[in-house]
Amino acid sequence: ISELGLSEKFFYLCPKTSIFYKGKISQFDSPLSLLTFPHLNLSDKLRTGLVTFYLKSINKWKSFENITASDWLKKYYGSNPYQILWKPLLKSKFGDKADKISMSWFWARIKKRSTKLGYLEGGFQVLIDKLVEKIKQNGGQIHLDSEIKNFNDLNHQSKFERLIITTPAQQFFKKMTVPEMLGAINLILILKEKFLTDGTYWLNINEPGFPFVAVVEHTNFIDPKHYGGNHLLYVGGYYPQNHRYFKMTKEQIFKEFLPYLQKINPNSQLLITNYYLFRNQSAQPVIPVNYSKLIPSHQTPVSGVYLSNMQQVYPWDRGINYAIELGNKIATLVHKNR
């Protein structure tokens, strides 16, 4: 951010995170909100607080690699907190793979969780635009809508000396053993009024049977004045790559999601003025036990071709900050091997 001269546009805020469970929204983002959470008894609350503090305080995560999150969480948090807090999130994110997810993944989510979130004034498109500007200033070229169908050993071609692939590995290397991927759906709703009227920014859906994992009211984080007075709501979930949602129209998905949105806010349909659908069939790596053994190498079997993608971000969850870190790492490697 500072290298690109964007420091003055970058800021931190402390948005509200809550859980939707048994038809009610309950804040769940601080020790105090844990103590007032209505669905756990005092013993469960104290145990949850102590175990969470332990996870945030330790740095050695490799001991978590060979145990599943479900086994560890049931053992140390206890059955009731696991069933109410953690099982719904694992299940809604990873589906039938939930019981295979490594505890190292869960530890990283707790370790890096903060009440503060960083954002750029104008959105992260500002970051992309500045990167494009710097690339062009340094003589780089950007070719959009340019499909690569196949390639051979690039050392014997004149067009490119090196190639860095940032797509999922299986899209290029059919014979490589690579991590499995899940797809994601994000339905963005344009509203004329607030949807989460209590001010919640991020709402985790812990209610069984919902077709999405989270409802995020972006304009409870960033003022609606930046969006023409509109309120923006993201409704998202993770699904197998062959899920029917990837073949459905946005109208069909909206129709399927709407009854569940009305369980959160009965006036949902009256608030919505427009909606957009975004989806990607390779949005989230599945993180089983001993995931480090599955991570594809940056140096591929093809000479001169490198791989840099979210499947290599571990144990942390993918995000813009880790993408930048990975970009620096692969650039250093390519420069070193010139």
UniProtKB/TrEMBL annotation:
Q: Which Gene3D superfamilies match?
A: 3.90.660.50, FAD/NAD(P)-binding domain
Q: GO molecular function: any one? A: oxidoreductase activity
Q: Provide the Amine oxidase domain boundaries.
A: 18-311
Q: Which domain of life is it from?
A: Bacteria
Where does the chain cross the membrane?
Answer: none
Its name, as the record gives it, is Amine oxidase domain-containing protein
